[in-house]
Amino acid sequence: MERTTLEVRVLKRGIELLGSERALARRLRVPLPDLMMWICGNEKPTRVTFMAAVDLLIEAGDTSGLGELHSLSPEHDDPADFGRSAGPRGQ
């Protein structure tokens, strides 16, 4: 069974919230074909685009689908650090 990535889950939820793939592409200011590649899991969106999609979910008050983002360790002050290895502060 293929595991759905966090990026795909966030983007799919964004589509549900906005009503269509086209609406999400407009909101994220990306070409629709790029969005479709990310939804299929063929490629990953840039960090900036992914964080814009996360912002959309947060604005809608829908953070339940963010799963792995909820488990960021206290060392991470900035969500942009998601995916980087956690190390002691100041390093």
Describe this structure in words.
The protein has 91 residues and is an all-alpha fold. The chain has a domain of 61 residues: 434 Repressor (Amino-terminal Domain). 46% of the residues lie in helices and 0% in strands. It contains four helices and no strands.
What's a concise summary of this model?
With 91 residues, the chain is mostly helical.
Write the layout of secondary structure elements.
Layout: H1 6-18, H2 21-28, H3 32-39, H4 47-59
Helix pairs in contact: 1-2, 1-4
Tag the structure with descriptive keywords.
single chain; 91 residues; mainly alpha; 434 Repressor (Amino-terminal Domain); 46% helix
Portion in helices: 40-55%
* H-E order: HHHH
Tell me, rounded to a whole number, the average pLDDT: 79
Number of strands: 0
Discrete helix count: 4
So what's the CATH class of one domain? Mainly Alpha
Overall, the morphology is: globular
Q: Radius of gyration, rounded?
A: 14 Å
What is the percentage of strand-forming residues?
Answer: under 5%
Largest sheet: none
> Structural class given helices, strands, pairing?
mainly alpha
pLDDT < 50 stretches: 71-91
Distance between the ends = 38 Å
User: What is the correct CATH architecture of one domain?
Assistant: Orthogonal Bundle
What oligomeric state best describes the polypeptide chains here?
A: single chain
Tell me the CATH topology of one domain. Answer: 434 Repressor (Amino-terminal Domain)
